[in-house]
Amino acid sequence: MKKIAVLTSGGDAPGMNAAVRAVVRSSEYFGYEVLGVNFGYRGLIEADFKQMEHLDVSGIIQRGGTILKSARSEKFREAEGRAIAAANLKKEGVDALVAIGGDGTFRGGTMLSKEHGINVVGVPGTIDNDLIGTDETIGYDTALNTAMQAIDKIRDTADAHERLFLVEVMGRDAGFIALETGIACGAELIILPEAIEKIEDIKESLKDILKEKSRSTLVVVSEGDESGGAIKLSKKLEKDFSKYDMRVGILGHIQRGGSPTAHDRVLASRLGYEAVHAIHKGLSEVMVGVINHEVKITPIAETFGKMKKINMELYELAKILR
In CATH, what number does 140-257 get? Predict the structure, then answer.
């Protein structure tokens, strides 16, 4: 009987629990044992393992966060740490590792596989949606809806006082959350790292927008934008827009929490199953994703290290609709 280990690593994302559930129950379907790894790659080094069976994942599909916990491990970045992790997996008789996370998780899994022959399959779990090889990552849809609901509330209070609001959303160096929440919330201006604009151009756009507005003005800013995020951008704007009641809102980690949407639960369930199915077919060093609603298998090394392109047609649409 094969034994599969599963871990969640890096930033948590709503739907990770649904993916863990799918891995455990799909493994049961294929006749494999499952070893849960607590605290990501740190848990591999510390041999923090637990046997997982059908009932261990009951009632978790609706929960945010991750029951396996997550942690960053500096020791795993070193060859010695990865050697310890591999030895611990081999000692437990593990045949394959399912790694749920983002680019850092996949980089670690790739090195573990290449250096020690560990069979690794990646499941994309990150709110940033920045991995190549899948249209959406687990947690992205929930983060979008969380940000949208928060910004809708900010719009209400901004309208009441006719304020200029700069709202920062997550995404690191990717503007997916900013772009889609900006459109969904009717933002007058969206600032993205993929659409680099000089500060003078931002000022001119904002002046044009404010001339036309009779109520509030909403600017959605991606945290990874070269302007430095909403706080730094506000500092650059305050002199030219001093007559406006300008406020800054940073949504932060609220976007990572909460119960996953139906879309994320289904996506996570599907990808968790596909990861085990890939192992069953003898695949390694791959990531399972969904493109155009169909399962896509991509070499894991091709999923990170390159910028995933946003839909610039949506960006242009946002300008038209503002």
Answer: 3.40.50.460
